[in-house]
């Protein structure tokens, strides 16, 4: 059956094409190379500027033109196929145990510092969250085991405000370990209590301590940059004074109810891992230089509301979520750490008396993702014939931005 995808009435690319030049002129001094590239790529995505090909039906003569995708990871249109392939791999790593969803959020006071030093502070967010889970889980009074962790970075809230946090998918148990968090020579599988993984308050305080310690170390080693109103924080005493109130504040670590099993984990990953700051389907209209979009107000009983912003402000909010070039936004730790993953998962399956579970999960999830971005050559959309002739279209030299 031929899958069809309804194109949204308005796309982020439309806003960039209409107001991108105005935006870049206004913020040229502060845009990073990665942000400029994202704007350029999204504006050209699936247009003649990137070339493509034309399919012609040899039976009825119907022609269909398909332009190439930009493949930028911040593009709302280019994630479905990437996600499908990634999910097929992740299905091989699943275990038949409970999985837990944890969220580690940075306080608002660090927002400006994070925007100025994204690579250092986002890296530290990953490191602190992973180290926190591993340390608390290794405590024999808590779990006494090394779990498997998959962490995903998001930097936005529903209205595109800067809101850096990591979502964690964690196994409800792990391989037994010693006090130094090393897996035992002859490990056993240690399950967490049904419906409960680790105490959130303990996770929050350990996370706070590790992140602030990492910030102080980064400052001491000269890895942080300070501009504008942050310039005084280059002084060590001023920086420590800035961090002192954060040491007393409760940091937000949120634990959701456990997943029902591996299939639910994959559905979750399909929603979260390759998400961008805003999907095209949330956009409503671009009118008189103003963008309206839908959002969910979590502070008001999750009600759906509408926000309208000037186009330049919308683009400013959007590009602040463009990650530095080469930055890895999905990372694995513990049992899922890349170096020993195959060996450790084999031990887990042996102890759990199971084989791999991906055979019944990967294909349906991949098909679901592919429906969002259907491949070509499924037959003529007019007569159904599969006798198609395909010819390449060269790139257009025109500037689409």
What do you see in this structure?
There is one protein chain. By secondary structure, the protein is of the alpha+beta class. It folds into two domains: 1-77 and 280-320 and 383-401, no CATH class; 80-277 and 328-368, no CATH class. It is 35% helix and 20% strand. The chain is built from eleven helices and 14 strands. Helix 3 (80-91) packs antiparallel against helix 8 (262-272). The radius of gyration is 24 Å and the shape is globular.
Compact description:
With 401 residues, the protein is of the alpha+beta class. The chain has helices at residues 12-27, 33-44, 80-91, 111-116, 118-138, 200-220, 236-248, 262-272, 311-319, 341-352, 362-370, and strands spanning 52-57, 63-67, 99-105, 145-146, 148-156, 162-171, 173-176, 189-191, 253-255, 283-287, 290-297, 303-310, 330-334, 388-393.
In helices, the fraction of residues equals 25-40%
Low-pLDDT segments:
1-5, 358-376
Q: Mind telling me the C-alpha Rg?
A: 24 Å
Domains (count) = 2
What structural category characterises the helix and strand content?
A: alpha+beta
Let me know the largest β-sheet. 5 strands, antiparallel
Q: Alpha-carbon distance between the termini?
A: 36 Å
For the largest beta sheet, what order do the strands appear in spatially?
A: 9-3-6-5-13
Q: Tell me, what's the shape?
A: globular
SSE inventory with pairings:
Blueprint: H1 12-27, H2 33-44, E1 52-57, E2 63-67, H3 80-91, E3 99-105, H4 111-116, H5 118-138, E4 145-146, E5 148-156, E6 162-171, E7 173-176, E8 189-191, H6 200-220, H7 236-248, E9 253-255, H8 262-272, E10 283-287, E11 290-297, E12 303-310, H9 311-319, E13 330-334, H10 341-352, H11 362-370, E14 388-393
Antiparallel strand pairs: 1-2, 1-14, 3-6, 3-9, 4-7, 5-6, 5-13, 7-8, 10-11, 11-12
């Amino acid at each position: 059956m031929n899958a069809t995808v309804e194109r949204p009435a308005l796309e982020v690319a439309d806003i960039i094409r209409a107001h991108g030049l105005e935006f870049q002129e206004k913020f040229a001094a502060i845009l990073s190379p990665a942000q400029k590239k994202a704007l350029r790529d999204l504006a050209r995505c699936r247009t003649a500027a990137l070339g493509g090909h034309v399919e012609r039906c040899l039976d009825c003569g119907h022609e269909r033109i398909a332009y190439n995708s930009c493949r930028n990871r911040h593009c709302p249109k280019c994630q479905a196929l990437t996600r499908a392939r990634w999910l097929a791999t992740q299905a091989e790593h699943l275990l038949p145990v409970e999985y837990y969803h944890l969220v580690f959020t940075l306080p608002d006071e660090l927002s400006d510092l994070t925007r100025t030093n994204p690579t250092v502070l986002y890296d530290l967010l990953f490191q602190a969250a992973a180290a926190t889970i591993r340390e608390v889980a290794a405590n024999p009074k808590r779990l006494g085991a090394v779990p498997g962790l998959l962490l995903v970075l998001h930097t936005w809230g529903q209205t595109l405000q800067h809101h850096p946090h990591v979502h964690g998918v964690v196994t409800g148990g792990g391989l037994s370990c010693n006090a130094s968090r090393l897996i035992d020579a002859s490990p056993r599988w240690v399950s967490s209590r049904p419906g409960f993984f680790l105490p959130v308050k303990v996770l929050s305080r350990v996370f706070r301590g590790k992140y602030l310690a990492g910030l102080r170390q980064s400052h001491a080693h000269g890895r942080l940059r300070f501009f504008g109103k942050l310039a005084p924080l280059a002084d060590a005493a001023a920086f420590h004074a800035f961090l002192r109130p954060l040491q007393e504040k409760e940091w937000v670590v949120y634990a959701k109810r456990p997943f029902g099993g591996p299939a639910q984990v994959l559905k979750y990953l399909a929603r979260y891992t390759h998400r961008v700051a805003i999907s095209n389907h949330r956009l409503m209209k671009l009118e008189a230089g103003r963008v309206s979009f839908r959002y969910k107000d979590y502070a008001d009983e999750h009600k759906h509301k509408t926000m309208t912003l000037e186009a330049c402000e919308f683009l400013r909010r959007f590009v602040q979520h463009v990650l530095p070039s080469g930055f890895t936004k999905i990372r694995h730790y513990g049992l899922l750490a890349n170096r020993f993953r195959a060996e450790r998962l084999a031990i887990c399956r042996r102890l759990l008396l199971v084989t791999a579970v991906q055979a019944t999960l990967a294909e349906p999830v991949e098909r679901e993702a592919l429906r969002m971005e259907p491949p070509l050559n499924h037959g003529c959309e007019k007569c159904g014939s599969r006798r198609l002739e395909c010819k390449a279209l060269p790139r257009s030299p025109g500037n689409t931005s």
